Structure formats: structure tokens, C-alpha cells
Amino acid sequence: MSRLTADPTADPTDRPAAGPTGEVAAGPTGGKPDEPIAGPTGEKPDEPVAGPTGGKPGRAVSLADIAAAAGTTVATVSKVLNGRPGISDDRRAQISRLLDERGYRRRGAVARSPARLIDVVVRGIDTQWSNQILTGAEEEAARLGAGIVVTATHGQLLGNRQWLAMLARRHSDGLILVVSRLSQGVDGELAKLRIPYVLLDPIGAGPQSVPVIGAANFAGGLAATEHLLQLGHRRIGIITGEADMRCSQERLDGYRAALGRAAVVPDDALVRPGDFLSSGGYKGALELLRLEPRPTAVFAGSDLQASGVYQAAAELGLRIPQDLSVVGFDDVPLCGWVTPKLTTVHQPIEEMARQATRILLALAYRGTPPPQPKLELATRLVVRQSTAPPPGV
């Protein structure tokens, strides 16, 4: 397991984007991870201290104080505090900054000085999908006055003693766990450390109290398959992700639902497991394309897997889309680089990371839970050049 740590001395105006190189920007405060600064949850409600604005100790900051400073109403501030809709992004950002700067804290919030640092845990940092997750998380954290530390698990279980000890030493304010597997009992250990966390595209079901952010995977699988059916395809193969991943199962369920609506009997021989990587797409495609009769279209569970389908088709002398139609999932930049350009299902990857970061920081700094525990962002089909009617139609 590797760990990429933010540079605590970085100038926030010259902040490198998080990405495959592992470079992650420090938060705008410039504070060291193991020397937390005072902040919105660092004081007890009956013992307010001077906040970032430099005010003298006095009474606790109220919603009315925040509303007056923002030039708005208490009701609007309450909406921001509770994550309710109906407020512009600019107004929400202004009020969120004031809540943090003035040190507002709900009654009963746990007293802990924030480090202005969150951990983002991903499986790896070598894909465009991961790069977009890190970009979204870093940009939103920086906007809200925090930095990020990145941990790559490489598919291993997360939660050994060494990792937990590192979390405790740097006083991380919270965790975003992206497609990560937790060791048994880690939830309890994080609770002891008073570290909130959110799940992004989780593997399996997490605790009911933990916020979950994902995409409409079922709807995406349904749309991809319906597109192929409308073109006239009936033998449609699918290469899924790992079986224990929720998003993988939901995309497969959408595929099966679309077949059922079109009165096409599902054929288990046309379903192949994958790993969301190019190698899995290549292996699954070779198996599918050697069937008799072979499928005339393949729905790949990710754009990377779709690139593996392209490779297998080329080796077998099949042209895309004349002989084989291909649909991916994610809509990463790769879709515009391959020839022909890939039809795919767009999921808002960076926005998912921004939402996860926003929810996490509201939990960490104000004790504010999201209005709903599961947030599902919409997906949409993007038709490019890799799909066409099947041969002879």
C-alpha cells in the first residue's frame, strides 16, 4: 500500500492538480498535518475562542450572525447548514465560508481542532477515472479551505494498524473511501478516532449511517443496452466489473432489464466477468467473439474495458462498428482518443468527488449530516462512432 502526502508548504496559488503522478496540493492554510490549526470545531460551545477573523473570545456565533454577515436570512443559512436545495452555488459557497471562518458549531458538536486535511483512498492512481476523482476532490477541498492526502490500496484490504496510526498522527479530518475494501472492525476504529467518512462507488453495502455517493448505474446499463437494441442488435454481450462491486451488479441489472423489455431472452453465455481494466475487457471480448454465433455488440462495464474489446476485435479481424458495435461506461478522455470514437455512458466522475468532499467536510467541521444518506447522480448516453446496426440490417 502506498501513501502520497500533500506538501504542507505549498503555495495555494500554485497548486498542482492531483493525478497519476501522485502530486497532491496542500490546503490553503499551509498548516502541517501533525500541527492542526484552530477552526470551526476546535472549541466547546460554551468556551468560544477567536476564529480566523481575529475576533476576541465572546459568545458563541449564531445563525443570525452568519446571516447578517452574508446579507441574507437565517432560513437561508439553515438550508446551507442542513444541505438542503434551493440555493445558488455561489451563495452556498459564501455561507459555507462564513460558517467556517466565524467558527460556527452546532450544539453538542465534538470539540476537535481541524487539521484542514482529508484522506482520499483509491484503488490506484494510474487510470483516467482515478485522476478525475482526485481532481474533483482536490478542487472542492481547496475551495473549502482544506487539502488532501492520497492513499492507493491496489485492491488490498484497508485498515491495518499502521494505516490507522498514520491517520491518528496527522489528525485527518475525514476520509473519502473510493471503491475500497475495509478490514473487519475498521468502522469501529474510525469511530474511536472520531474520523467521519463517506463511501464513493462502494464495494458492497456500508453501515447505514455512512453517506454513499454514486451514479445511476442501473439507468446507465439500461440506456446502453436499449441503444444497441434500437439499432437492431439482439445478441449483445456484456463484460462486467468485479462481482462484489455494487456498480458492476447494477449495470448488469440494467442490461438484463433492457433485454427483458425488448422480449429478448438473456443468455448467460453472453455475460463475462471483468475487472474494469483493459486486460479484463480484452480477455472477456476474446471469449465472447469466439462464440458461435458471436455477439454483434458488446457493452463493456468501463471505457478501459472497451479499449480491450477494441484490441480483441482488431486481432480477430473485426471492424468497429461495421462488424461489431461497442459501448463503454464512464466517458473518460480515452473515448475521444480511440478510433472510432467510443459511444459510452457518461457518469459525472468529478462531480461525484466534489459532492463526497462537500458532504465529508460538512460532517467533519459542523457535524451536519447530508439530507439523504445515499446520493445518486444521473448518467446519460453519449453516442459517438462505435455503434451501428448489425451486419445485414
Architecture overview:
The chain is built from twelve helices and 15 strands. It is an alpha/beta fold and 393 residues long. Among the domains are: 38-110, 434 Repressor (Amino-terminal Domain) (Orthogonal Bundle); 217-348, Response regulator (Rossmann fold). The strands form three sheets. Strands 1-3-2-5-7-8-14 form a seven-stranded mixed beta sheet, covered by helices on one side. A six-stranded mixed beta sheet has the order 10-9-11-12-13-15, with helices on both faces. Strands 4-6 form a two-stranded parallel sheet. β12, α11 (334-337) and β13 form a beta-alpha-beta unit. Residues 1-57 have low confidence and may be disordered.
The structure class reads alpha/beta
Number of strands: 15
| Global Rg | 23 Å
Task: Name the CATH architecture of one domain.
Answer: 3-Layer(aba) Sandwich
Q: Please tell me what the overall shape is.
A: elongated
**Spatial strand sequence of the major β-sheet:** 1-3-2-5-7-8-14
Q: For the residues shown, what is the average pLDDT? A: 81
In DSSP terms, counting alpha (H) and pi (I) runs of 4 or more, how many helices? 12
Run of helices and strands? EHHHEHEEHEEHEEHEHEHEHEHEHEE
Helix-residue proportion:
25-40%
CATH superfamily of one domain: Response regulator
- CATH-assigned fold name of one domain: Rossmann fold
Poorly predicted parts? 1-57
Distance between the termini: 51 Å
What proportion strand? 5-15%
Largest sheet: 7 strands, mixed
CATH class of one domain: Alpha Beta
